[in-house]
């Protein structure tokens, strides 16, 4: 399993021996933690118990230990029974409350019969009509009550997230709350909540530009904002602009380059870009990444993106993404130009292995495009660059040996 | 590497007995606050520790009967396992339970004293999203390729893979592939070594390795080794012992382990061990934990470090276990 937390990352090794004082202090903390845990469990066992007390107790425990997934679940179950409106389909409420009769001990003022799971009439959040369980006025009350509850849950997780930005359980709880908003609130109201969420994703990425969770979260939030359920439209252009800003701040941010690579096909389609526009777009991307490589030729992130663009010229899947109509001669010209530009880099950086790797790869791309074997000049180049790669990057000698064999360069080397 | 342990210089010696003692001590630390804060990982921790002990050649270092009792005490009526008694059932702890029972050859106890294999298989199968093929971790719906792999791992060990829609799941993995040959946590997500392991291993279990771009993926994985010999999880990130497993096992599955410098990686892992008190940390000089202890040892095992038992690169179990259960 990938990292589940609980493991130690980046904490300095110290003597593991504790002083007597530390040991007693630990025992005291264990006692308090255990006591709190017992209280939470006793309340959580009585399913259908939604009360300020359950929120307060689970909150206290989760602040001590945000990895405690069972307690997040207890909080969810409690919340489901406290929410007034009902999700339209796949009611998780019945799942949470089916084993016991909900006590309906909601303490908030808007508590009414509909807070009891068993008597609630399912209502579609999109088409709110007066049902058997209440009037439109009741519905409005219920909706604003739910909105407040969900917002308060979102506020609760913020400090926890800032403290443990890589904790899967917090992110997942937050998404669950947001899903409740989509299912239970009017689209316009739910949409505002999701929009604020995009702000949080930006804030988290501002603190750690590569945070895997935050990037994934951002993609998810955007997909929801684009969905019909929230009456949304495409955000590809805005998100593309976001990657621009992130890259300007830090060229080495591969997460942003990656995101860009995934947005491009949609962006061009939605712009209705014709062949000329697509070509101009490709030129501009190539210029951007080439300028970046000029400054940092040792940065893998930049070369991966350059490679993405080159694959857009040579592979069928890649071509579909950017400029499908480019004629073969044009594509050959593009690859040839890139090889020339990369060769110029050698004047400033003769010991950068990624440059030789780029030359090696793209020369093979060129041959592949023209469906031919390398000519003698190219072959001499391949042999020379492979020699540089072996010298500059001996860690990957096994790979260079395979490349030499697969490209039929072995005799060339021996013949020199 | 030399064939025997004794021929190695001191800095390249694995502190086997210290590691065994360290793992044995983990369940005796009930007077430490951290012991209680990590209860939500107890069953996973038992799997990590027990697997490490088996690979170190000390499978008996944790008592078998107590291990079975504890595992069964975590099971719910629906077949799923929680991380400890009183904790909710979850895919991750359920997979750990199945792996532990497979390792100590105790599936029969699951039948006689537990809820039975079929119920476990049903719990896991119910977590598949039949529309997209992927899996959730529990009833609350978080989806991730980690859970898909966990489901394939446990179900195939139980002989119950037919309970799920394997083709749909494979389609989902294919949708998680990126231009760099790697895989992300969901379609559209950046390639990440941990997720690559889960996707490549799941495809291997499904017999669908042909979907992998091995050249491109092998290249990306080999580029995870950085100066100092350790492996990182993504471009331009720091090295970490646990990637000795995620990256290396993936390379092994696609037949490209020789694309990195094995000796340098061995030296890096050994620099992360605490030779006196046992255990392995993420980086040299950091605090040890059982997670990095296991993945340091599995890494060394894949690198054929002398004296270690062979680890199965797909299941993260001793090869002797997968040979017995699956005939692999
Ligand atoms: Zn790690």
UniProtKB/TrEMBL annotation, chain A:
Domain of life, source organism: Eukaryota
GO BP annotation list: prenylation
Low complexity composition bias: residue spans: 86-136
Name by which UniProt lists this protein: Geranylgeranyl transferase type-2 subunit alpha
Keywords: Prenyltransferase, Repeat, Transferase
Family, per entry: Belongs to the protein prenyltransferase subunit alpha family.
Taxonomic classification: Eukaryota, Fungi, Dikarya, Ascomycota, Pezizomycotina
MF-aspect GO terms: Rab geranylgeranyltransferase activity
Enzyme class: transferase
InterPro entries tied to this protein: Prenyl_trans_a
EC annotation from Swiss-Prot or TrEMBL: 2.5.1.60
Region (Disordered) location: 1-20, 86-141
UniProtKB/TrEMBL annotation, chain B:
Organism: Trichocladium antarcticum
Pfam short name (any one): Prenyltrans
Cofactor: Zn(2+)
Name the record gives this protein: Geranylgeranyl transferase type-2 subunit beta
Family to which this protein belongs: Belongs to the protein prenyltransferase subunit beta family.
Source superkingdom: Eukaryota
EC numbers for this chain: 2.5.1.60
Cofactor note: Binds 1 zinc ion per subunit.
């Amino acid at each position: 399993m990938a990292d589940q937390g609980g493991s130690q990352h980046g904490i300095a090794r110290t003597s593991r021996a504790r002083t007597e004082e530390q040991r007693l202090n630990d025992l005291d903390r264990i006692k308090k933690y255990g006591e709190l845990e017992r209280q939470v469990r006793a309340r959580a066992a009585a399913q259908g118990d939604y009360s300020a007390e359950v929120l307060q107790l689970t909150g206290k425990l989760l602040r001590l230990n945000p990895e405690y997934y069972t307690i997040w679940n207890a909080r969810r179950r409690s919340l489901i029974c406290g929410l007034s409106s009902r999700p339209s389909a796949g009611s998780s409420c019945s799942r949470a409350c089916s084993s016991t009769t909900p006590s309906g001990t909601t303490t908030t003022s808007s508590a009414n019969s509909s807070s009891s799971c068993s008597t609630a009439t399912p209502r579609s959040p999109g088409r709110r009509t007066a049902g058997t369980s209440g009037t439109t006025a009741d519905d409005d009350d219920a909706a604003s009550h739910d909105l407040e509850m969900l917002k308060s849950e979102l506020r609760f997780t913020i400090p926890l997230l800032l403290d443990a930005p890589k904790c899967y359980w917090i992110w997942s709880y937050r998404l669950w709350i947001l899903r409740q908003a989509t299912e239970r609130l009017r689209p316009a109201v739910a949409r505002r909540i999701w929009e604020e969420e995009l702000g949080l994703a930006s804030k988290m990425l501002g603190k750690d530009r590569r945070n895997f969770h935050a990037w994934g979260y951002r993609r998810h939030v955007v997909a929801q904002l684009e969905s019909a359920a929230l009456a949304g439209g495409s955000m590809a252009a805005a998100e593309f602009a976001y990657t621009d800003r992130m890259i300007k701040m830090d060229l080495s941010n591969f997460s942003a380059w990656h995101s860009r690579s995934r947005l491009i096909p949609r962006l061009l389609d939605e712009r209705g870009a014709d062949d000329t526009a697509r070509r101009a777009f490709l030129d501009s991307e190539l210029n951007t990444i080439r300028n970046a490589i000029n400054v940092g030729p040792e940065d893998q992130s930049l070369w991966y993106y350059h490679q993405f663009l080159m694959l857009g010229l040579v592979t069928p899947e890649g071509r579909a993404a950017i400029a499908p109509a480019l004629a073969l001669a044009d594509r050959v010209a593009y690859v040839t130009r890139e090889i020339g530009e990369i060769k110029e880099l050698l004047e400033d950086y003769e010991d950068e292995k990624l440059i030789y790797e780029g030359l090696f790869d793209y020369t093979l791309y060129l041959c592949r495009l023209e469906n031919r074997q390398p000519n003698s000049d190219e072959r001499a180049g391949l042999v020379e660059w492979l020699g540089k790669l072996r010298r500059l990057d001996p860690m990957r000698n096994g790979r260079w040996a395979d490349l030499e064999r697969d490209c039929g360069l072995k005799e060339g080397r021996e013949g020199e | 590497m030399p064939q025997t342990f004794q021929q190695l210089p001191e800095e390249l010696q694995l502190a086997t007995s210290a590691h065994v003692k360290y793992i044995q001590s983990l369940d005796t630390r009930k007077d430490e606050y951290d012991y209680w804060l990590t209860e939500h990982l107890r069953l996973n921790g038992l799997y990590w520790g027990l697997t490490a002990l088996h690979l170190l050649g000390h499978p008996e270092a944790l008592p078998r009967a107590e291990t079975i009792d504890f595992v069964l005490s975590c099971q719910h009526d629906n077949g799923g396992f929680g991380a400890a008694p009183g904790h909710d059932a979850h895919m991750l702890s359920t997979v750990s339970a199945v792996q532990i029972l497979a390792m100590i050859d105790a599936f029969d106890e699951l039948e006689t004293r537990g809820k039975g294999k079929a119920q476990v298989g049903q719990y896991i199968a119910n977590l598949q999203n039949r529309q997209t093929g992927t899996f959730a971790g529990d009833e609350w719906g978080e989806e991730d390729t980690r859970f898909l792999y966990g489901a394939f791992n446990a179900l195939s060990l139980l002989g119950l893979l037919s309970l799920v829609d394997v083709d749909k799941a494979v389609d989902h993995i294919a949708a998680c592939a990126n231009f760099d040959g790697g895989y992300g946590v969901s379609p559209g997500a950046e390639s990440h070594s941990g997720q690559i392991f889960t996707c490549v291993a799941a495809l291997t279990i499904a017999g669908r390795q042909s979907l992998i771009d091995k050249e491109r993926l092998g290249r990306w994985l080999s580029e995870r080794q950085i100066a100092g010999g350790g492996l990182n999880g993504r471009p331009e990130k720091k090295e970490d012992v646990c990637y000795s497993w995620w990256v290396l096992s993936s390379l092994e599955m696609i037949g490209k382990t020789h694309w990195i410098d094995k000796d340098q990686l061995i030296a890096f892992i050994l620099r992360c061990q605490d030779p006196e008190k046992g255990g392995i940390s993420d980086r040299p000089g950091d605090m040890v934990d059982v997670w990095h202890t296991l993945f340091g040892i599995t890494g060394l095992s894949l690198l054929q470090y002398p004296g270690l038992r062979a680890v199965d690169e797909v299941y993260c179990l001793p090869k002797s276990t997968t040979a017995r259960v699956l005939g692999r």
